[in-house]
Amino acid sequence: MEHRYVKDSQVYATELVLPNDTNQLGNLLGGRLMHWIDITAAIAAARHSGRVCVTASLDELNFHDPIRLGEIVILQASVNRAFNTSMEVGVLVTAENLREGSPRRANNAYLTFVAIDEKGKPVTVPPIVAQTADEMRRFDEALERRQLRLARRITGNY
Q1: HSE toward the beta carbon, residue 145, CA cutoff 13 A
Q2: Burial classification of residue 57, based on how many CB atoms lie within 10 Å of its CB (0-12 exposed, 13-18 middle, 19 or more buried)
Q3: CA separation for the pair 92, 64 (Å, rounded)
Q4: Phi/psi zone of residue 16: left (φ > 0), alpha (ψ -120 to 50 degrees), beta?
Q5: For a tag site, which of 4, 18, 115, 155 has the least CB within 10 Å?
Q6: Torsion angle of C-alpha atoms 149, 90, 33, 12, degrees rounded to 10
Q7: Residue 85: which region, alpha, beta or left (left: phi > 0; alpha: psi -120 to 50)?
Q8: Is 147 helix (H, G, I), strand (E, B) or coil?
Q9: CA–CA gap between residue 105 and residue 131 (Å, rounded)
């Protein structure tokens, strides 16, 4: 199976936080952000595999800084590592206040996707080649997170 590069799976999405996206405090709803993250990550997984991909798990979703009404949200997703039929996708979320102009890291997430065929059965995905130092770091860390996921599944400690 032919390998793919991390850059081939990268997805950039931009959203504007509107009143319907916020809670009573004027902050972006966590569920709305999760929806945007899931879609962006699914596109990255599909780009890598050339298949429809389904969300298998969400390991972490870290809320570092609230995102406010009227801010721009930039989601950057790419496949960190491909296993047999699954892929870990990392998503970095930055927020930008247009008046202040400086983007800040607001969230990050790690999701696992499985590529499926027309019958909904898992299919093998191409291996990924990490080229830069950052891609290699994320590649290595993805294996560590996978091992933790598998250990939790065995012990039942979710």
Answers
A1: 22
A2: middle
A3: 11
A4: beta
A5: 155
A6: -160
A7: alpha
A8: helix
A9: 24
User: 78-97: string of b/e by CB count within 10 Å (b at 16+)?
Assistant: bbbbbbebbbbbbbebbbbe
Q: What's the CA gap between 143 and 127, in Å, rounded?
A: 13
User: What span, in angstroms and rounded, lies between the C-alpha atoms of 17 and 26?
Assistant: 10
Strand pairing of 128-129 and 4-5? Answer: parallel
User: Are the C-beta atoms of residues 128 and 48 closer than 8 Å to each other?
Assistant: yes
Concatenating the DSSP letter of every residue in 22-87 gives: B-TTSBBPHHHHHHHHHHHHHHHHHHHHSSEEEEEEEEEEEE-S--BTT-EEEEEEEEEEE-SSEE
Q: What is the predicted pLDDT for the residue at 62?
A: 79
Burial 22-45 (b: 16+ CB within 10 A, else e): beeeebbeeebbeebbbebbbbbb
Sign of CA dihedral 48, 76, 19, 22: positive
Which residue shows structure tokens 């994320």?
138
In the predicted model, residues of the chain with pLDDT beneath 50 are none
pLDDT of residue 158: 60
The token pair at 102 is: 């400086």
